Amino acid sequence: MTDMDLEFGLTGKTALITGGAGGIGWAIAQTFAGNGARVAIADLNLDGATDRAAALGAPATAYRLDVTDPASVTDMVAAVIGDAGRIDVLVNSAGIGPLAPAEDLGLDVWDPTLAVNLRGTFLVAQAVGRQMLAQGGGSIINLASQAASAALDQHAAYCASKAGVLGLTRVLALEWGGRGVRTNAISPTVVMTELGRYAWTGAKGDAFRELIPAGRFAEPEEIAAAALFLASDNSLMINGIDLPVDGGFLAR
Fold first, then answer.
1. Across-strand partners of 191?
2. Mean pLDDT of the chain
3. Helix boundaries (H) for the chain
């Protein structure tokens, strides 16, 4: 039996986090760095990623990334490998969530939502997965959502994109698990990032909070804690799961 590191240390591991300049991605970057990982922050906002990497006070680097652009993904992964030599953990956290009633939903909303949330997750997972397969191991963590498993009002594009992320996660787990690469998903409820606080204040937030048995929304650090577990060697037998961090929302 493998010795368990109950400190959940990531010392010696390189973790790549997309969308790492803000929100959940930034919380995960901080948690990983605090547990010994070398962190690569990839974000469309290079200035923000650079500032975040500098703020970590640990081995950290920043990269510009457009997850929808195959060339950008390829260049970014090559740069991380060139700097760190390997990628042990990938967190696909980049995402967008514009909302509209289904009857009014235009392709100007649908297409970018699917492009960032699903196409982007696939492109980065594929590029990093190839490297992990070559090196003989790694952990991929895809940020899905409770919206992947439950219908949410005005979330047609978002729900579809995140359901696709779950399907992709399971296929990668099936194909790559026997070669040492684990792929799992995390499905948060509403998370109190800066954007979450803005979008879910007032009566709308109060009404939705009542649907969560825990009676509150999640904090970014709670999502980061789940990611830390899935990144660590304590979860070597966990592959292909969706881990809800939703206060019981999906238990209904």
1. 218
2. 95
3. 23-34, 46-56, 70-84, 107-114, 120-135, 156-176, 194-199, 202-209, 220-231
Query: Token pair of 248, please?
Result: 């019981």
63 is catalytic: no
Kind and range of the H or E run holding 249: none
Task: State the helix-helix crossing angle for 70-84 and 120-135, rounded to 10 degrees.
Answer: 30
Instruction: Write down the catalytic residue from 26, 63, 158, 176.
Output: 158
Q: How far is CA 179 from the centre of its chain?
A: 22
Express each pLDDT in 3-37 by its tens digit: 666 778 899 999 999 999 999 999 999 999 999 99
- Distance in angstroms (rounded) separating the CA atoms of residues 150 and 148: 6
Question: Nearest CA to 88 among 169, 225, 164, 182?
Answer: 182
Q: What is the mean pLDDT of residues 29-54?
A: 97
What are the tens digits of pLDDT across the range 183-206? 999 999 999 998 888 888 899 899
Average pLDDT over residues 146-161: 96
Of 65, 60, 55, the closest CA to residue 18 belongs to 65
Q: Report the pLDDT averaged over residues 91-120.
A: 96
Q: Is 149 helix (H, G, I), strand (E, B) or coil?
A: coil
Q: How far is residue 89's CA from residue 29's CA, in Å, rounded to a whole number?
A: 11
Question: Is 94 within 8 Å of 19 (Cβ atoms)?
Answer: yes
* Domain definitions of the chain by residue range: 14-192+220-244
Residue 195 has phi, psi (to 5 degrees) of -65, -40
Residue 118 main-chain phi, psi, to 5 deg: -105, -55
Report CA-CA distances (Å) from 97 to 17, 144, 152.
19, 12, 12
CATH class, 14-192+220-244 region: alpha beta
